[in-house]
Amino acid sequence: MSILVDTNTRVLVQGMTGKEGGFQTERCIDFGTNVVAGVTPGRGGTTHLDRPVYDSVKQAVNEQGANVSLIFVPAAFATDAIFEAADGGVDLIVCITDGIPTLDMSKISAYLAKKNVRMIGPNCPGLTSVADKAKVGIIPGNIHKPGSVGVVSRSGTLTYEAVGQLSALGIGQSTCVGVGGDPIIGMRHKDILELFEEDDQTESVVLIGEIGGTAEQEAAEYIKEHMTKPVTAFIAGATAPPGRRMGHAGAIITGSAATAESKKQALLDAGCHISDSPGDIGITVQKMLG
Amino acid sequence: MKLHEYQAKNILKSFGVPVPNGKVFESKDEAGKFVDELGGSAVIKAQVHAGGRGKAGGVKLVRNAQDGADFAGSILGSKLVTVQTGPEGVPVNSVLVEELVDISRELYLSITVDGGEKSLVIIASEEGGMEIEEVAENTPEKIQQLHIDPVSGYQPYLGRQVGAFLSMDSKQTRALSALIENLVNAILENDLSLVEINPLVVTADGGLLAADTKMSTDENADFRHSKNADLRDAEQEDPLERIANEKGIQYVKLDGDVGCMVNGAGLAMATMDVIAQVGSSPANFLDVGGGGSEEQVAEAFKLIVSDPSVKKVLINVFGGILRCDVVANGVVSAYKEIDVNVPIIVRMTGTNAEEGGEILRSSGIPATVAHNLAEAAQKVAE
User: Fold this and answer.
1) CB within 8 A of A69, min separation 6: which ones?
2) What is the CATH number assigned to the segment(s) A11-120?
3) Distance between CA A258 and CA A255 in Å, rounded?
4) A140 in contact with B, Cβ within 8 Å
5) Backbone dihedral angles phi then psi of residue A206, each to the nearest 5 degrees
6) How far apart are alpha carbons A148 and A255 in whole angstroms?
7) Using the beta-carbon criterion (under 8 Å), do B150 and A236 form an inter-chain contact?
8) ipTM confidence
9) What is the CA radius of gyration of chain B?
10) Full-prediction pTM beyond 0.90?
11) Chain A partners of B132 at a C-beta cutoff of 8 Å?
């Protein structure tokens, strides 16, 4: 089995009747994902992409047994959509929408914890379990090969880059997850690593980080203490300038942990194989696998 | 979005947080007159979106109206270069004139978002003043961090913990707790991402005063704060970056000579990294965005080439939502409009990469094609 989504996944799509939501949902269906319903308030009783559309998440869960919600609704309505999904009975929410206010995400996180619901995103490309034909997000389906490398990354195209390099070398993937780049997100790198460690389909992991925050250090700590599977890591942004920031509060929280150098060192100390260049991620994994 | 100090203090005042008596001016004579109204002495501060103003000569204590007008006149209309601005500096279009404050202690207090804990965090220290980051690095025990649970919200016991940490008596602690509660209310109602009061002054008579403050809003929440548009001061932003942002392109000017056009911020940073690794240097960060149109790509290309320091251009696109044929068409249409005298290296893969390659080939643009990121970097170095 892969992580988070697999052959048992039954996806409902909030915002499936929109232009972007419809376009992306079609690609999920083409990949083999079991999309069972759409949810658009006011459009209940219609069908779209040959799937029934409901007014509420609860109806889609009750009538179609949906257990994962994929969200494409615009930012101004996304907070409402996430709360509805968490209250509606799905186990996992994947929110592609970007532009959700940070303080909303703080409240959402507390609610998800209370409801015991997991979330990927927001502002993320979603995830794909390759062999299990479950693509819940916008990662292009044709870049994958099925296999045993788990990929966890923050943002979209850099995830595709890593996956593309693996596939070009004939190295297949189990599940590829883009957790998103916002200040507050649902599952973080470390949470995904925990799942990969327990997943029997995943034999090794590629971790892609970026400058800013402390998610990579958290991940390094987990790898050092608990991870038995080998990890290849790349950190983007070594050459990015510090930027014109304001105030000191952010720096006080992260200390020097936000820099690429500090993240790389933490992952190296945890025993990871480091890819120094973004062009060498695939090759580094190939060497690691021997 | 960054706010000016005077804007931040207006917000603090409206939420009951005490700030020094002061007013903002764009004219030196009116600034001078207000010094008189304050009793003949005042502190005058350049209003710019950057810290480090004091060391850069943007803040001065004046003892009469003439001195006040002279200093205001000397900085109004000039550019202030601080450690946080970069060498080009930021324009000073207004000054804040404030009463002098009788200082007995200078503390540090801020509230911001901690992504790791997924909540707001109160940060406090007895070491108010300039070098708070060094304090955090060298003597972390002098910094207190307390998280505010989003469900329970702010409760006075948190304020009591901060008061105890700052060695305050019970009366002062009550005032501090009320001040923190007001800050939290200001944050929640305005969707602020940062409020920093440095220094938070304890006055000679024991009162609390926000002597200097920095404040940023969460731009993701602009849709529910229509008044934020009036608070924006676009002149504080880099002109090229401003033009780019208005077109939905994320652009940051850098020092090198390789112009880059990339889709996605992570891949854009990785592209800069790979350019640096082959001994070249990126001229910019540019994320054309996931939902970019042909017009946006064309604008992005023109923007890159308009930078006189650009000697080569690398286009690195992993087609996803943004298709490679759209990128190719955008580049071709921009190429036809302007004179391009620098070599172009293109690496396109993902959605519709073949169509994109064909569009470039048939257009006759002399672009060097690379098949992967490593090869693209090599061709940049050649």
Assistant:
1) A11, A12, A13, A14, A39, A57, A85, A88, A90, A92, A93, A94
2) 3.40.50.720
3) 7
4) yes
5) -110, 125
6) 36
7) no
8) 0.91
9) 25
10) yes
11) 248, 252
